[in-house]
Amino acid sequence: MRLSVITSNPGKVREYERCFEELGVEMVHVKMPYDEVQSSELEEVVRKGMDELKKKKGMSDFIIDDSGLFIGQLGGFPGVWSAYVQKTIGNGGILKLMDGISDRSAVFKCCIGCNLMGKDIIVTGTCGGVILEKGRGTEGFGYDPIFSHDGVRSFAEIPLDEKNLVSHRGIAVGLLKEEIVKCQASEDKP
Question: 35, 51, 61, 66: which is the annotated catalytic residue?
């Protein structure tokens, strides 16, 4: 089975490849722009993106996702605008906004949309944690150096296999894998 991972972020593709290799699912990186609706809900962004990819671009058997870092003391910011905020103010800007704030709790969320054999599957994974005082580590991408799920190590300080067990995307992928196994089982039935 082959799934196109539609993203401009090669880091996401690497995470998907590692997570799906045991199922024998081949991941193909596809850079294909699509409109991301402005919404405060990740699922709405994913659902509308999937509709566009299927109807306007004729895509099938693909994965898209939308992820966000939701910081409690910043009213959920950057949330669904996380990619834009990362490009504009980066981790340094987030740390500056958090300067002097003692409650540094945050939640990473990942909503994955998968079109598989004509069926749409949408799952969401979450990972709670904290924003660190400064960035640490060299692994991962995006907010990984400033986010810690355990309050000790940043996502950029842990190996990818460990990150995939606890991260928002890893949890969402686990849910998606369950759905893919069900689809494969139903396809195998006469």
Answer: 66
